[in-house]
Amino acid sequence: MQIDDEKFKKLKESTRELYYSTESVYCPFFGEQVFFTSDGYQHLFHKGQRNERLRTKEDQYVRMKLFKLVPKLLRESKIVQEHQVKKTFVPVVHNHRDEQVLRDVNYWGFLGIIDGRRIKVVVRKIGNGKLCYRSVVPKWKYGNQILNYVRDLDNE
C-alpha cells in the first residue's frame, strides 16, 4: 500500500485532535469510564510493552483510520471476548526517582463490527489504576496482509 505523505500528515493531525478531544468513554461492561491517555495515543504509532519500536507507516495508517470506531465500540460493549492478567514491571516515581515495580496488569479485548469494520479494542488497567484505552487492532488478516482495510479505507 502506497501512502501519500500529505494525506498521512492530515490523517495524523485529525486523529490527534479526535484522540485528545475524547477524554473518556463510559463502557457498560465495566460500569465506569475508560480513559484515553497519551500512552494509548503513542501506541497507535509504536509497539511493544513500553512503545519502544516504531510501527510501519501502513500499520500506523490503518490504526489511525480505525481509531474513530473505538469510542463507539467501547460505548456499546457489554461482553468481553478476551481477558489476560500479566505480572509486569511498570515505571513509577517514588521519592522523586523512577523505579520499576512489579504489578498485575489486566488486559481486556473487545471485538465488534462497527460500520462494517471488524476491530478489536484493548483496554488496560495497571494495578488499582484507572481503565485506559491501549490499542485498536484490525481483525481481518491473512498472514501479514490486512484484507478488509487496505483498499477500502482510502474511499472514506
Helix/sheet category: alpha+beta
Weakly predicted, low-confidence segments: none
User: What would you report as the Rg, rounded to the nearest angstrom?
Assistant: 16 Å
**How many E strands?**
10
Sheet with most strands: 4 strands, antiparallel
- CA(first)-CA(last) distance: 16 Å
How many domains comprise the coordinates?
A: 1
- Tally the helices: 4
Instruction: State which percent range the strand residues make up.
Output: 35-45%
Given the C-alpha coordinates, what overall shape results?
globular
Overall average residue pLDDT: 88
Give the H and E element order: HEEHEEHHEEEEEE
Specify the helix fraction band.
25-40%
Enumerate the strands of the largest sheet in spatial order, edge to edge or round the barrel.
5-6-7-8
Task: Describe this structure as you would to a colleague.
The chain is α+β, with helices and mostly antiparallel strands and 156 residues long. It has one domain. The protein is 26% helix and 41% strand. The chain is built from four helices and ten strands, in the order H-E-E-H-E-E-H-H-E-E-E-E-E-E. The protein has helices at residues 5-21, 38-43, 57-67, 70-76, and strands at residues 24-27, 32-35, 46-47, 53-54, 82-94, 97-114, 117-126, 132-138, 141-142, 145-146. The strands form four sheets. A four-stranded antiparallel sheet has the order 5-6-7-8. Strands 1-2 form a two-stranded antiparallel ribbon. A two-stranded antiparallel ribbon has the order 3-4. Helix 1 packs across helix 3. It starts with a helix and ends in a 10-residue tail after the last strand.
